């Protein structure tokens, strides 16, 4: 299976390509700057994937409209050639949140005009007989555009103060978990599953943005201490933006499990793995020393 992915440097694009490295049944190709009927005819992908805008509510309106226009044009090309379209959408379209987890049947009704344009495009995408709209919790990863975690780590290590909302509850979502889920869905669909439509995917355990950032800071400090580094990490500043009632934006992901057998992943577990990878990348000498020490200990134990 061969898939074309827009935005070559987006964190989801990089995660998808990384997921496919060890596989022989799917490949993700970065798309050229312009994708039209001619390009799709030449490449002949089995699906086209559009990564989400990270937070359209805080983007420049012009950027949101450009994204919507591009998806709309791409939709027309995909419909013309009968190519499936996969569109990642940020959960921030649920501008007012909800007290209980939000399922796929609830159509976002944002007040913001630019975000309403995204909802309109989504309605058009649904008329494509083979489409996936994947609503995602806020993605975090170590590399690429909109990777959140990498930006947060860099700010903390530079000693900068980080402002984080403590009355916004959401479900951070590992970009690697999202890439694995998309891969599983596409392979099942390519094998005749026929379960096109809209699905939700986010990490387990709803948490405030402030608490998520606090966990990142605490675990990062612990790992840095373990490698003998002691930078003065930046402090967190709690923000309250929703007055007396915290805003909850939690997605119900049961349909993804029921249809494709894909479980939500623990953001805490995925975060720990990413922080380990970050330390190995930035402190490789310490990692080699640890490996040498462990090998030496195993050798002494064997001789004993």
Automatic annotation (TrEMBL):
**Family to which the UniProt record says this protein belongs:** Belongs to the dTDP-4-dehydrorhamnose reductase family.
Q: Name one Pfam family in it.
A: RmlD_sub_bind
Name the GO terms of the biological process aspect.
dTDP-rhamnose biosynthetic process; O antigen biosynthetic process
Top-level taxon of the source organism: Bacteria
Domain RmlD-like substrate binding span(s) in chain numbering: 68-277
What's its EC? 1.1.1.133
Matching entries from PANTHER family are given as: DTDP-4-DEHYDRORHAMNOSE REDUCTASE, METHIONINE ADENOSYLTRANSFERASE 2 SUBUNIT BETA
What functional role does this protein have?
Catalyzes the reduction of dTDP-6-deoxy-L-lyxo-4-hexulose to yield dTDP-L-rhamnose.
Question: What protein am I looking at?
Answer: dTDP-4-dehydrorhamnose reductase
Cofactor stoichiometry and binding?
Binds 1 Mg(2+) ion per monomer.
């Amino acid at each position: 299976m061969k898939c074309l992915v827009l935005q070559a440097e987006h964190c989801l694009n990089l995660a998808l390509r990384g997921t496919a490295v060890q596989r022989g049944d799917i490949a993700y190709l970065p798309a050229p700057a312009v994708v039209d009927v001619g390009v799709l005819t030449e490449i002949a992908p089995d699906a086209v994937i559009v990564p989400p805008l990270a937070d359209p509510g805080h983007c420049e309106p012009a950027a949101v409209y450009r994204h919507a226009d591009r998806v709309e044009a791409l939709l027309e090309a995909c419909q013309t050639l009968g190519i499936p379209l996969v569109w990642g959408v940020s959960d921030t379209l649920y501008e007012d949140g909800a007290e209980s987890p939000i399922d796929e049947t609830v159509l976002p009704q944002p007040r913001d005009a630019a975000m309403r344009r995204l909802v309109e495009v989504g309605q058009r995408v649904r008329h494509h007989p083979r489409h996936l709209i994947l609503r995602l919790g806020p993605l975090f990863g170590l590399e690429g555009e909109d990777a959140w975690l990498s930006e947060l780590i860099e700010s903390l290590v530079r000693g900068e103060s980080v402002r984080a909302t403590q009355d916004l509850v959401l479900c951070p979502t590992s970009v690697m978990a999202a890439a694995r889920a998309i891969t599983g869905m596409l392979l099942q669909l390519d094998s005749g599953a026929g379960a096109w439509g809209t699905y939700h995917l986010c990490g387990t355990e709803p948490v405030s943005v402030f608490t998520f950032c606090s966990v990142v800071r605490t675990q990062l400090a612990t790992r840095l201490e373990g490698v003998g580094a002691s930078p003065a990490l930046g402090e967190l500043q709690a923000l309250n933006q929703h007055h007396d009632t915290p805003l909850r934006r939690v997605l119900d992901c049961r349909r993804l499990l029921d249809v494709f057998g894909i479980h939500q992943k623990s953001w805490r577990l995925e975060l720990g793995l990413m922080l380990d990878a970050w330390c190995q990348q930035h402190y490789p000498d310490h990692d080699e020393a640890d490996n040498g020490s462990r090998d030496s200990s195993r050798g002494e134990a064997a001789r004993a």
